[in-house]
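Dear Dr. H.,

I hope your travels went smoothly. While you were away I took the liberty of generating a structure for the chain from your last submission, since the lab meeting agenda had it listed for discussion. I wanted you to have the full record in hand beforehand rather than looking at slides cold. The sequence, exactly as received, is reproduced here:
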Amino acid sequence: MRIRNVLFVVVAAVLLVAPLALAGEKVKGDKEKGAKGQTVMGIVASVAEKGDSITLQLKKGDKGAAETKTIAIDADTKISKETGEMESVPGEGGKVKQKPKVVEATAKDLAAGQRVAVGCTEDGSKAVKILILSTQARKAGAEGEGKKHKEGK
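The corresponding predicted structure, in token form, is as follows:
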């Protein structure tokens, strides 16, 4: 009977510790591959004269106060922009979806007043990629069609 209790405790301990060890390995593997940083969305408040940084105006929630954030950009930063045109792409289950067409851009294409999505490094100090969002309304059937944006507030 005592051997059975000891065996039960050992098995229970292994079952409790094994998932934690596997989770630790998964996180470690993600770090080695280059963990993803944060994505910031906002409106370009200004672009540095040298083109080495942008300042974004960020709004936290519907009633949140606006704040600014300066993010460095360099030659490795991938910049692209939506053209306002829609293109058909294969979606899940073989269905065709409409999404905004995206083309390459440069830092010279960045200007105050543009809405952007910025993929940053983990600490948020440097832009890895920047997407300049189209100012034109998306056509019906586009991804995100169900989302309603409140503008002017």
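Two observations you may find useful: The helical segments are 2-33. Residues 2-33 form the longest helix (32 residues).

With kind regards,
E. W.
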